[in-house]
Design a protein that fits this description.
The protein has 339 residues and is α/β, with parallel strands linked by helices. The chain has a single domain (15-318), classed as TIM Barrel. The protein is built from 9 helices and 10 strands. Helix 1 (32-42) links the parallel strand 1 (19-23) and strand 2. Helix 1 runs parallel beside helix 2, helix 3 runs parallel beside helix 4 (141-162) and helix 8 (248-257) crosses helix 9 (275-305). The longest helix is centred in the last third of the chain and has 31 residues, at 275-305.
Length: 339
Amino acid sequence: MTAPQPRQAPPAADARTLRLGYGTNGFANHRLDDALAVLADLGYVGVALTLDHDHLDPFAPGLTRRIAAVGRRLSALGLAVVIETGTRYLLDPWHKHAPTLLHDDPTRRIEFLRRAVRIGADLGAEAVSFWAGVRPDAVPAQSAWDRLVAGCATVVDAADAAGVTLGFEPEPGMLVEDIAGWRRLRAALGDPGRFGITLDIGHCRCLEPWPVPQCVAEVAEHLVNVQIDDMRRGVHEHLEFGSGEIDFPPVLAALAQADYRGLVAVELPRDSHAAPAVAARSIEFLRAAAATAAARSATASTAATGRPTKDEAPAGALCSASTDATVAVRYPDRGRRVE
């Protein structure tokens, strides 16, 4: 009689196969064509394109022609794309991020998001990402929530018509700032199929109640867009890798375990002054972290089965972040910082 063989875990994706991208909001001082070329030369396979004054302004003349030109450039460089809508002063030159879906007149924001969906459809974007905004002091909480649900429903309708996937981003300091808030919003919208989540890895460390890899697991089913950066607990400040508190190999392993196939885009919007150098350091760091994740996985699999495999260990076994139930978030920028 043949002795039973040790049971092996099912094959899982390798962290080294994750698709790394970079946010163009971290190249604000570059022409878009030049930024795309630098990123492709560095080895990134995609970009998170923030629609802004100099980077495909959706309100400037000749939009159709300019979309087509960007599409050709992306194709020539072999870059995938997601659309980001976190531009600061595109809609109002006096007020950052205004108007949002929470303001008395959100018309310009809704039109911006509709145009973002159109651009996403034309460019074959993997997702169009957006967020709630900070509740204006004069707007009661319930009114702000009702406005958000109504505005999101309009955007969902546009996305459905265009065949575009939405990634809603919980953002510290905004009306929806965490995964729990995203879940509540999705339920209020009737759980639409195209309403996924954009997960910023730094935000998870900043304020979520779980270890960062568990945050990935919590939303794996609906994860359509990932932003990645370092951060400290309770401080909403996007940091270069190694400057914060996140242990990245477990995070990359968790993304692989979730079988996430989308872009993992570096989100460093305040580092445009040194964009090429920061982008080069970032991809080197993430590649090294992915290799470490794969090595840890192989070691864990060997220990579990008695023979080496390429399978990865469960992400939870690699967690090392804080699990504080609550956290008071500090915003270095005059008391409240929202990127």
